[in-house]
Design a protein that fits this description.
heterodimer; A: about 220 residues; mainly alpha; MetI-like fold; 8 helices; about 75% helix; B: about 260 residues; alpha/beta; Rossmann fold; 6-stranded mixed sheet; 4-stranded antiparallel sheet; 11 helices
Chain lengths: ~220, ~260
Amino acid sequence: MSTNILPPKPKNLFPVWLSVALALLWFIVWDLGVDFKDLLYGVEDMTEYFSRYGTPNFSNISSYLYLMVQTLVTAFWGTTLAFIIAATVAPYAARPLTPNAVTYRFARELLNFMRAMPDLLLALIFVSSMGLGPLPGVLALSIHTAGFLGKFFAENMERVPAGKYEALSAVGAGFTQKIVFAAWPSMLRESVGNILYIFDRNVRMAAICAATAMCIRP
Amino acid sequence: MAYISLRAVHKTYPNGYCALKNINLDIEAGQFIAVLGPSGAGKSTLLRAMNALDPATQGEISIDGVTLNKKNYRKIRAHIGMVFQQFNLVDRLNVMTNVLVGRLAERSWLSSLFYLFPKTDYQITEAALREVDLLDKAWSRADKLSGGQQQRVGIARALAQQPKLILADEPIASLDPKASEEVLTLLRKICSEKGITVIINLHQVEYAKQYADRIIALNAGWLVFDGSPEQLTAAKQAEIYGTTYEETSHEPELVLAHT
C-alpha cells in the first residue's frame, strides 16, 4: 500500500557484527598467548636469513637451471592433468548441468576428497610406491588441485545465466552439447584465471614437494 | 485433431504456486497466436509447458499427434524453436555458431565436442541468416550486436531447427519500438510464408491485435479469453487486465502502464 510517510530506515547490524568479530579476535590472541614482543625480537634473526639472498652462490648453476625447469615441467603437467580431471567432473558437480541428485552429491564429494588430501601427503605416498622423481610430484599435484579446479569450474558453470542452458535445452541439445556450447564459452575468462592461479600455486608446491621428498629420502 | 492440443493442463510449481489452471486449447497449424495477460498470469509457463522446459504437472499436451512425456522431450524440442526475451545467445561465440546451435539435436555429442557440423548444417544456417537479413554479421561475436539484431539471431537459431512451431516468450520486451516491429514483422512473415505456427507472449495489446490471427488471454492461471483480434473489445481487455472499463476506454495507455 502506498503511503505519504517515509518508512523508518531498516536497522544496520554491521557495527554489532564488527565488534563481535573484533572481540573474538582479541580472545583468540589472549587464549593462544600470542606475544607481539617475540616478533620484535625475531626481526634480527629474520634479517640475517634474508641477507643471505644478497650473496647467492652460482657455483652449481647448470644443476640449478635443470632443477628449475624440472619444477616448471612438474607444475605444468600437474596442472594439465588436474584440468582434465576437473573438466570431466565439474559438470556433474554443477547444479544446472548434473543429471540427478546422486551424480551431483558424488561429484561434489569426490572433489571435496581430492581437495582434502594434502599434496605433500599424496607426494609421499607416490614417492614410496614409485621412487623419487617428477612423476609422483605430477600425480600428487594433479589430484589435489583437480579438487580445487573442479570446484572452481563447477561454480563458474553455476554462475552462467540459466537462460543460456535453457536455450540449449529448448533446441533439444544433450548434456555434452550444453557443456560445450553454453558452459565453456560463457565461463572461459574466469576459468583461464583459475587455471593460471592453479599453475602458479603448483610451481610453488612442486618446489616444496621436491625439497621435502629430498629431506626425508629413505 | 488439432496441431497442438492441451487437455486439462495444470501446472503447480514445487513451491506450491499454481501457474496454470485447467487449460484446454486447440491450436491449428500455421496460425500466428498471441498470448496476453498481466505479469504472473502464466503466459511463460504455458509456452514452457509446450516444449516441456516446465512440464505440466497434470493434463495432457500433444503436438502434431505426439503426446509429451518424459522420454520424448528432447525429440519433440528438436523441432520446436524457442525465442527468449533475453535472447539467450552465447555471447562469446559468433553469430554463425549461435545459429548452428539450432542443429545440435541432430548431431552426436562427439562431433559437438569439437564444434564439428556437416556442410548441410552450414547451408541451413546460411539460409536462416538470410531469412533474418543478418548474413553480413555471420562472423561477428553475438554480444557485439544490437538488441534487435541479437533477437533476430535468436529467431535464426529457431529457424535452423527447421521447426513446425516457434514459441516466442516475450521476444520484444527488451527491445525499442522500432526493433520490436521488425521482430514481429519477421515472425509474422515466417508464419505466413513458411506456414510455421507461431505462439507469442506479448504485453502490448495493440501489437497483438495488429499481428495475430488469434488471441488467447490468461489471468491468474485461468484462460479468460480466446478469440479473434476483432472480438477483443475494450471491455474484454479490462477484464483480462483486471482494470475497470472506464480506465481502459478513456485512457488506453493506462492498460500498457499496468502490464
